[in-house]
């Protein structure tokens, strides 16, 4: 079933550098409503679980270490066509290929420390949102 929600998290590099407010502002100005939001930190085990789909990739140990290296800001967002529109707003995985004005082009430092996550399907948006937020925390 189609959904109008997606999941995002501002990653450790962008939180540490004080971009949380700027990024959240861009998200709201693009028409997304914040359904849930928190500042938290992943343990290496939880980071590994979140990115389990990539566990066979060479970059997985580095990715897990990076994602557990500092605070993150997970959010559930709502908008028509949320998953696809949000992927457009954040831009390509590698900021070198991200279009001008996208969040990754503006704030990412590298293909790994790329400032922000965005779910790639409605199914993953639901799984990832529930990974961080109970139903009672979603408004
Ligand atoms: P996304 O959907 O655009 O986030 O990209 P992927 O699902 O392919 O990758 C998940 C995350 O792993 C990315 O957002 C990056 O943080 C990291 N990543 C992806 N590709 C690479 C890579 O080639 N090297 C490193 N070090 N990290 C990567």
Describe the structure.
This protein has helices at residues 12-16, 20-29, 44-50, 60-67, 82-90, 103-107, 122-132; strands at 5-10, 33-37, 73-78, 116-118. With 139 residues, the chain is α+β, with helices and mostly antiparallel strands. Helix 3 crosses helix 4. The longest helix is centred in the C-terminal third of the chain and has 11 residues, at 122-132. The protein starts with a strand and ends in a 7-residue tail after the last helix. Guanosine-5'-diphosphate is lined by residues 59, 62-63, 93, 111-112, 114, 117, 120.
Characteristic terms for this protein:
single chain, 139 residues, alpha+beta, Alpha-Beta Plaits, 4 strands, globular, binds guanosine-5'-diphosphate
